[in-house]
Each structure stands twice: as C-alpha cells, then as structure tokens.
Amino acid sequence: MLIDESVHLRKRTLSCPILMSGKQKMSPDELIYLGLLVLSIPLGGLVRQVREPTWRRAVVFAVGAGQVLLTCRWDTLHSLVSILGTFTILKTAGPRTSHLLTFVWCFGYLAFFRTCHLFHLPSPAAVANAVQLVLTLKLSSVAFDIRDSHLAEKSRKDGNDNSADGGTAQEGTRHKTAEQEFLPVPSLIDLFCYSYCYIGVYTGPFYKYKTYHDFIHQERPSSLPVIQPLLDRAKWMPLTGGVFLLASRYFPIAYAHTEEFYATSGVPYRLWYMLGMFLVFRMRMYSAWILAECSCITAGLGAYEEWRKPKCGQGPTVGGTPKPEDKSPQGTRYNFETIKNVDIYWVELGTTIRSGMKYWNMTVQYWMAEYIYRRVPHKTFRVATTMLLSAYWHGFHPGYYLSLMTIPLSLWVETEASTTFRTRLGIRGQRIWDWLHCVLKMRAYDYMSVGFLLLSFEATTKYWHSICYIYYVFCAVVLALSYCCKQRGLDHMHNASRNDTAVKKMSM
Questions:
Q1: Which residues pair with 305 in a beta bridge?
Q2: What is residue 176's three-state secondary structure?
Q3: Element (H, E) at 319
Q4: In degrees rounded to 5, what are phi and psi of residue 175?
Q5: pLDDT, tens only, 181-222
C-alpha cells in the first residue's frame, strides 16, 4: 500500500523490456524501505526481552522516532504537527465531536502535505509520505475509538449494554462477547509513542491504540511462541520475492510510458503486459507486507490467545477467562490475526472481486470498513464513499480515482451476474462458474491496477484506450445480458400467469 509510491514516480527513457531489464535497479527509497523492514525483524527479538512497560515503550518509541528523523529529516515536522493538532482536539473537544474534528484535521492535513510546494515549501520525500499515511489512520482511529468507548460506557450506565459487537449474547459465564472498553484520552507522551512506534511506522500494518497498549503491557513477552507463526508467514517470501525479481525484469512499468510501447505492440500484447505489470506490483506488495508482519511477530505485537478469537485490525472479540477446552497441554495458544495484512491464497484464488479485496491490505480494509463504510448513513453510497476516501488517502494522482471508483461498478456487475446466471446453474455448473470467475476477477484487477501504476489521467486513459476499454465494455455486456434475462423471466412469468387465468376461466 505504501512502498510503491517512489516506484511509481520513476520514469526512464528505455527501449524494449528485454533490453531494459538489465538496467532495472531499486531506487534509494526502496532500499531504505527494504533495509528498515529487514532490520526490524531481528530487532523484535530484542524488544521482547524488555519486560518493564515503561522501558518497553521507550525503546520502541526511540527506535521509531530515530528512524523517522534519520530518513525524513525536516519532513518530520509534518508528523509532529499532525500529532500535536490531534492531541489538542482530543483535549479541548468533547467525545461528541472530537472524532469528526480529528478526521477532518488528519485528512485535511494530508491535502496540505501533498500541496505544500504551492506554498513555497519543500515537497516531502516519499519516505515522509509513507509515515504520514500510516499516521493519518492511527490518529483518526484513536478519536473514533474514544468516541465509541464513551457511547458504550454511557449505554452501560443507562442499563442498555450494547457492546461494539452489537449484542449481549454470552457463552456461559466465562466466555462472553468482548465489550467496548472505556478509552480515556491518551497523554501526549502516549500519543507520541503510539504514533512513532517503529513497528509499521512506514509500511503498516495498521493497529489500534488498544493493540499497542496491550503490546506494551504484555506480562511475559519473552515467552511468547513466535517461531512457528514467523515461519508460517515467512514461507511465502521466497516465492513472492523470487517472482517479483524475475517478473520485474520483463515487465517494467516505465516501458508502458514510452511511445515505442504503443508503436510496436498490439492489443493482445498490451493485455499480456498489463497482466505482467500487476504481477510485479502485487508480488512487491506481498513481499513488503510479509516482512512487516514478521517484524510484528518477532516483537510480539498483536499476539493474543486463540480463545479470545482476535480478528484482523480489531483485536480480541471474546472477553472473560478461557474455558477448560481452550487450554492446551503445551500451554496457551496464541495467534497474530490482529496484524495479518494479506492472505495470498484467497487474494489469488478467491472467486469474487469482493472476496479478493477483503484479503488484500486487510488492516487498512478493516480501517475503511470500521471507521468509514459502516458510518455512512445511506447504504447506497457506502461503497462509493469508501472508495473515494481510499483514493484520496493514497494520493492526488488521478489514476487512483480512476481505478478505485471502478470498484463500485465491478461489485454491481458481479452481483448482477451472480444473481442472474449463477443461481440458475447446478452444483457442477456453479463450480465451473466460480473457477471462470476467479480468472476474470484477476483480469479485472489487472485492468484497475493500471491507474495505480501509471498514475496520471493521460497515461491511464491512453493505456485503457489502447485496449479498447475492454473491461468497461465487458461490464456493459454483462449488465445488458442480465437485463435481457430478467426481462425474459418476467415475460415468462407474465405469460404463465395469463395462461393460468385462461385455464381457470375455461374450467368455469
């Protein structure tokens, strides 16, 4: 989600992709990202040896703040201003309005951050942009969580206990749905430490202030079983890293910006190249997210007992004490679902666009769903509003908006096709449909990724025009066929009704 920004801005004049493959090198920003991610993994093992919460908080803050100062230098002032502004709002505004004011402040500051060159200020570096993106999600989530906790507390005092999970169902006296805990306004020091915690400060994953607080106050962090979870996540790295290194040699994004690309290629090759560019993009993102998750695991961030049923981004969903059957002879079982940011299997083999989105950049998806999607008053506008904000969060490049605002159309077409055609098939037919839809889903992602990779309006529309806007044409055809089938079904129902009426009249 974050580390690709500097790559997008690299445009070189190159000939054919085979010749340019030998010249493809990592930019300084990419090397910084990679180095910090790799170093954070062994560092986590040292952090777990620090048991005292005060020292633990100081260590993760010092490392994170030091990294930001060294890489961002004067651009660090942007993050400082964001934190101080948020703290002022939280302290002066009440819980009724602080979440909205903080949201406007954080996302409004993003606009200034990206346009500060218009005010004769130096443009921030790509590294500072990565820090600001993560920080925006963190700070606004604190305000929303404070507001939600106040509402839950007020509800409990009024005798109407409606937890954040929307129910009062309990599994006996020991297992119950986790309630929304009361969250006071953090101190300025706590807010600084949370914001500059070195884990995920550049690349994510996003985690709540509550998750950070639980991490700082772990009782026996050095005894956490991290080896197996670490291996389970790292096992994908040779595949994603290897495919990225190989594919990036033959599908460099910069070649799609050249006139030679369009002059020497036809539609089939451009479709093939679009597939290759998205392959490079997602392998890059998979690799970065895997490394980021590994840094969380080695430090113990997001480690919760399995019986508490933690969910991505949210944390524990079950409170109370464990049942006897939840206890293992080998000790308490933990997982790191809270900081899981990607499920490669389901992104690649999920049968729908919606399911693939769910398992891509999962913690940010959680943020968008929890703090935006579910809070939009009218359901009709929820998807479009969420995608629009996601595009704004990513940046001002028109390609982001062209790609992300295609998603509402994609979900509509997907729903129409499923209800009109898939439901009429048998079990075997539905299986074939799902596999075919899986292939088409990835081609839809290929098409939409063009905006993220080429960025500008001209470059994106030029590429789409060169392939005859094939995805939009496909969507129009599916909607037309769906409409015709529905009309035909209505005509059949109408004719059947008329025949039944005629038969009844004859029988009379």
A1: 334
A2: strand
A3: strand 318-320
A4: -110, 125
A5: 778 899 999 999 999 999 999 988 999 999 999 999 998 899
